[in-house]
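Following up on my earlier thread - several people asked me to post the actual chain instead of describing it. Fair enough. Here it is, all 179 residues.
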Amino acid sequence: MSHGATTPASSNQNAVPMTPGKGLLVLLGVIVVIGSFIALGSALGVKQFWIAFLFLLYWTGVEHAAFDKLLACVAGAVVGLALAWSLSLFPAWFGEKYGMICFGLLILVTVYCQIMGWLPVVVNLATMLFLTVGTIPPIHEHLDYVETFKTLALGFVYFIGLVWIGTLVMAKRATVQQA
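Reply from S.P.:
Thanks for posting it. Predicted structure:
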């Protein structure tokens, strides 16, 4: 948990509240972005959209779309999903008993790394989020992990690209306004 966590109400006490009209415009933008992603994914034959939205929620909601946190967010998402997949792979490779022992040991090592702050680029809160969601039984039992990784990769490209382009546009507007 972040020690300096703030709520939207407390994060910027001097901010002017958004008007209902601006709120509707933002909502329209969200609909276009999400709808476009779903259309693109559908055209490419991917279906596990939730995994890309989970990444988007984590990177933008928790890390505020900070590019200096991006590597850890991407690596954490990939490692967390891979760890969740190992819950299926290890029993298939080593048998039910030894596979579950291997999975349990891997999770213990991962959690210990998280506790100790070791390997923070690959073992972090994003890792734990994707591991947790990926091992929820109703999700895990019906998940095609190859498909899910493809959708996650598409989400990385699409959402990171949109945020990057948006950052460039905002910087250019700020430069023009200062001139």
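The radius of gyration is 19 Å. That should answer part of your original question.
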